[in-house]
Amino acid sequence: MKKTFLSFAALMAASTVSLAQINKAFKIDYAIVVTNANSGTEQEAPVSLYEAYVSNDKIKVVSSADGQESIFLAKKNEDKSTILYPSLSKYIVHEDDATSFSIKLVPGQTKNIAGYPCKLAQIELPNIEDIEGNSTLSIWYSEKLPVIYWESFDIFKKIPGGVLQVTTPLGVDIVAQSVANSQLNDNDFIVPEDYDQVDSIYGEEQEGEENNQMAENLYLFEDSTSGLMGLQDDTQQIVVPAQYHYITPFVGEVSVVQFKNEKYGAINLTGKTVIPFQYDYLSYDDNSEQFLFGTNEKYGILDKAGKVLIPANYDMISFINGGYAVFQQNEKYGILNQAGKIVVPASYSFISENNGTHFISVENDKYSLVDIKTNKILTPAYDFISITEEPNLFLSSKDGKYGYLNGQGKIAIPFIYSGATSFSDGLASVTKEGSDDVILINTKGEEVELDAAAEAATEES
Questions:
Q1: Where do the domains of the chain lie?
Q2: Model-level pTM?
Q3: pLDDT reported for residue 21
């Protein structure tokens, strides 16, 4: 019954909203780095804070600043942006203001950050009480990346490339930890119907509570003496003592935290330690119930109980999906099975995603479909390829047209559409050139009426 309801809901949505497309983008992971302002050396381990996705015309930035997850959304051709607050089911529409700072582009200054050549821009800050002497903001940017900005960083609009490092005179810097090819889905820019628009999330009734909410009836608080964080309920009874530098919002029943020893671990809703505080980096995926952990700048995978599934031997690794994980070694990408055995050597410039049988490789902005077991490239270079819920159908684009490939890399549904979505519950939405009408098709490429599609979904359940 649940599947029937979800299928029908998806069909109704497809008939009433514009077609969502998947677009190529860059993913940039930023961290806060505390440095010695005099020597420039790091004083503490980087704290991941911003997960950004940027294309030539759109920006999405997921932020965990102040313990409150927010999602910044902007279309570059519009003079406004939207900020979503998932834990509050609220959003704010922000009208963009012109910035008055002047930017100086510094010739002859270059360095490499996250694999990208960067140039230097500088901004002279106005007089600020906490800053003595140096009042220059140094911004390192790459012209090979699209312009990116987000809430409180509108100044980045004037930078002629993607910002990868911001050095402040306060010794608190923002530094890109990695840059990878990724995707942006038009659906990401649709505000959920159950969200309420507000002018601010810091209204009197919310202050001190909802803006610090980590889970149902759990709120962040700071100890005024130690500056450490803990959790309390809505009656201000302490549930988790203030002993953490950083607490992330709960994902399911798990929160990744940074203990006072600067190491990362995880706690449950009662504050019980479920992953010991021994890692330099830790993140959790509720769908796979896995942790990605880092130690000595190498990364691996834990299960939900903390058992090592894949040792931390890799420069980066993905969560296990379909029995396989993507890993990075010496700036090349390969595939591991869930036992940690390399099944595809690290010989690819980038692997964007995988399922249980195939992976998508990206070389010079061109996409190829590759069989995991044989490591055989099945397709010529396409402008875009993405995995769908149908394991044998892959959304693809070439020369501005969309279609679908099968598991052998052959055309399963012709490239005749101006836009298309991935398959879900056996259906996809497409549009044709010169028309805004959304058409539903089945896995054979046949057009399906809404009533017939709903009936088919009911029979399947």
A1: 1-19+382-461, 21-189
A2: 0.63
A3: 60
